[in-house]
Design a protein that fits this description.
alpha+beta; seven-stranded antiparallel beta sheet; three-stranded antiparallel beta sheet; 10 strands
């Protein structure tokens, strides 16, 4: 009888509510993913900025440092020393090789010729092999005997030469460059004086 008097009650339905620890894990995972995305974007931005900076540096380096210019050759400090035994006039001068490049300029020896207004060669001298350091000037002392000034008066002569060499950057990169000299001298042989020297 006792069994019959017991009432049967239905079981409570099982609900699928998540645990509190599962609920808290969803926003944390979302935040971590967002942080990773931001970090990746920052890394990509830094890489892009670095690439642009490197490109600018390379372009500036190529346009300034690596730009090769032809050195300039001039005659300066030209003076009349004295007369030679055969009646010629001896001149002393300095050959100036100005190198404006960021690499040194190593040139071969060359022969300079002095020609008067009639196109006649009146003198020659040799410029020895040498090296002009980066962004500096090389000075070479020379002596030359000039003929055709026995009668005195002002004589105009033109000195020309071409030096062949190479501009060397950091002992690795080499660029061939020639340096030309074209100078006009007005010499007063009666007074043993050089009135004017102009170089192009």
């Amino acid at each position: 009888m006792a069994e019959k008097n017991q009432q049967l009650y239905p079981l409570a339905p099982v609900t699928g509510y998540p645990r509190s620890d599962q609920e808290s894990s969803y926003p944390s995972n979302y935040q971590s993913n967002e942080l990773r995305k931001k970090r990746r974007l920052k890394c990509l931005a830094y890489i892009a900025i670095f690439a642009v900076f490197q490109t600018i540096v390379i372009v500036v380096f190529a346009l300034t440092v690596m730009r090769v210019k032809s050195p300039r050759v001039r005659l300066e400090r030209v003076t009349v020393q004295n007369s030679t035994i055969d009646g010629n006039k001896r001149l002393s001068a300095q050959v100036i090789v100005k190198n404006t490049n960021f690499g040194h300029y190593k040139f071969e020896s060359g022969t300079a010729t002095l020609v008067n207004e009639g196109g006649v060669t009146v003198g020659q001298f040799v410029i020895p092999e040498a090296r002009a350091r980066a962004r500096s000037t090389k000075r070479i002392d020379i002596l030359v005997d000039v003929s055709g000034g026995g009668d005195g008066g002002v004589v105009v002569v033109t000195g020309r030469t071409r030096l062949r060499g190479k501009v060397v950057f950091m002992k690795v990169l080499k660029r061939k460059k020639s340096a030309d000299m074209d100078c006009t001298l007005s010499i007063d042989f009666s007074r043993n004086d050089v009135q004017r020297v102009t170089c192009r």
